[in-house]
TrEMBL record, chain A:
GO terms for biological process: glycine betaine transport; transmembrane transport. PROSITE patterns: ABC_TM1 (PS50928). This is ABC transporter permease. The chain crosses the membrane at residues 31-53, 60-83, 95-114, 135-152, 190-211. It comes from the Bacteria. Residues 27-208 form the ABC transmembrane type-1 domain.
From TrEMBL, chain B:
It comes from Streptomyces mesophilus. GO terms for cellular component: plasma membrane. The lineage of its organism: Bacteria, Bacillati, Actinomycetota, Actinomycetes, Kitasatosporales. Keywords: Membrane, Transmembrane, Transmembrane helix, Transport. InterPro entries: ABC_transp_perm/SBD (IPR051204), MetI-like (IPR000515), MetI-like_sf (IPR035906). The keyword Nucleus does not apply. This is ABC transporter permease. Pfam families: BPD_transp_1. It is a multi-pass membrane protein. It is found in: Cell membrane; Membrane. GO terms for biological process: glycine betaine transport; transmembrane transport. Residues 29-208 form the ABC transmembrane type-1 domain.
Length: 225, 242
């Protein structure tokens, strides 16, 4: 229990929140990594997955990508990228690693979402004279929405977690509070950092669940029935 | 490039490294394997009672699934750090963290496997006078085995990858070599350990696939039948913590 009170004490000490190595700065770094990488990953993965799902091709790629991604240790990629010449460009190795690990959940879920749209609904839409574009925008996309959001959520969780690991490869983010705590054998600081990282992950997931519900294109329709 | 020189020039690929540090690599791999194996086995032992509890009714299923899913969203670095006051710098810390992660996949798959047991099989067994224990052990478990083993495969592969993070408390198997290589800027060590990690995951997956085939010979007949190839697309929707 000492560690818990110690951690709370660490968290309530104002000095720990200020400065370059303070919580606020580390949190800003963490959110910056997460935001930028998610945006880039979405720009790459979503159009590709939705297009593949719409034309019904490339399923093996979309599904296997997740399985391959699972076998590759994030830590190894972070460290490998840091040691390549890319490592001289500041945050670049971390950003690339985060994008790489954000893509599989987005791609796989969006693809499966598109493919799981009831074929008879798509046929009916075609029969009503909808163009391919209309079928995509008005039928497939709204029906695939829940899984696209699931993909976005797991991808975000993944990125928040990987951004914490970037600290082990010497990069910034909230993970630095933990790794520094380990380096100086300060258990309260380690636990305080863990509470911050874990709290951020749960908070981000909660926010995404709420956004997902709020933006659901089917929300008003089901309510009206 | 001369083989002797690759250690001096710090090449990514270095045969000399493999020769001179083979013992170090073997030790790290052995540690990696036993930490992974212990985690998945303990995970399975914990997942079973949880899954049995969860299928008793919605009142249990909600909390069990909610808790195991929430555990999954906790970043690995935070998970291991939160366990530090309880376990100190020990393998038990790493294994506990990995067990908690494996629960998400294992509990779900055990539940899915048990739920997929045909009601007719259950009724037939009850009609034959099977008690609840014998029904579970001799009828439900064998029929749930394909789904359970599919879960074990996914859990094992992601556990192999996650074990590397244990390096933060010096029990990360090959992850330890990766971190040491980073500190000493030793490229061959980092690349070799990383590749070994992926190889380990693939080998474990193939071995478990083989086990799955041996334990459930009847599924192959179904697989070969047209329309019988229902792959676990649902399972692919779960992603692993980093």
């Amino acid at each position: 229990m000492n560690a818990i009170t110690g951690a709370l004490e660490w968290l309530t000490t104002g000095a720990n929140w200020q400065g370059e190595k303070g919580v606020l700065n580390r949190l800003a770094e963490h959110l910056y990594f997460t935001g930028v990488c998610l945006a880039v990953a979405c720009l790459i993965a979503l159009p590709l997955a939705l297009w593949l799902g719409h034309i019904g091709k490339g399923g093996a790629l979309a599904v296997n990508l997740s399985n391959v991604g699972r076998a590759i240790p994030t830590l190894a990629i972070l460290v490998l990228l840091t040691m390549t010449p890319l490592g001289r460009h500041g945050d670049l190795p971390t950003l690339i690693a985060l994008v790489l690990f954000a893509i599989p959940p987005l791609l796989t879920n969006a693809y499966i979402g598109m493919r799981e749209v009831d074929r008879s609904v798509v046929e009916a839409a075609r029969g009503m004279g909808m163009s391919g574009r209309q079928v995509f925008l008005r039928v497939e996309l709204p029906l695939a929405y829940p899984l696209i959001m699931t993909g976005l959520r797991s991808s975000t969780v993944q990125v928040v977690a990987t951004a914490a690991l970037a600290a082990m490869a010497g990069e910034g983010g909230l993970g630095r509070i933990i790794t520094y705590g380990f380096a100086v054998q300060n258990t309260p600081q380690v636990v305080a950092g863990a509470i911050l990282v874990g709290g951020l992950a749960l908070l981000v997931e909660l926010v995404l669940v709420l956004i997902g519900k709020w933006c659901d294109p089917m929300r008003r329709r089901t309510a009206a029935v | 490039m001369d083989q002797e020189n690759c250690l001096v020039t710090n090449d990514w690929v270095c045969v000399k490294y493999l020769e001179s540090r083979s013992q170090e690599l073997i030790d790290a791999t052995v540690q990696h394997v036993w930490i992974t194996a212990a985690s998945v086995l303990i995970g399975l032992l914990v997942a079973f009672p949880l899954a049995l509890l969860a299928r008793r009714g919605k009142g249990f299923a909600g909390p069990v699934l909610g808790l195991t899913t929430a555990l999954y969203s906790i970043p690995s670095l935070a998970m291991f750090s939160l366990l530090l006051p309880l376990f100190g710098l020990s393998p038990a810390l790493v294994i506990t963290g990995l067990v908690l992660y494996s629960l998400t996949i294992l509990v779900r798959n055990v539940m899915a496997g048990l739920a997929a047991v045909p009601e007719e099989s259950r009724e037939a067994a009850l009609g034959l006078g099977y008690g609840p224990g014998r029904l579970l052990w001799e009828v439900e478990l064998p029929l749930a085995l394909p789904a359970i083993l599919a879960g074990v495969r996914i859990a094992t592969v992601s556990t192999v990858a996650l074990t590397t993070v244990g390096a933060i408390v010096d029990y990360g198997g090959l992850g330890g070599l990766i971190m040491d290589g980073l500190d000493s800027d030793f490229k061959a060590q980092v690349l070799t350990a990383s590749v070994l990690c992926v190889v380990l995951a693939i080998v474990a997956d193939l071995l478990l696939l083989l086990l799955q085939r041996l334990l459930t010979p009847w599924t192959r007949v179904r697989d070969a039948a047209p329309g019988g190839r229902i792959r676990d697309s649902r399972i692919a929707k779960v992603t692993e913590p980093a």
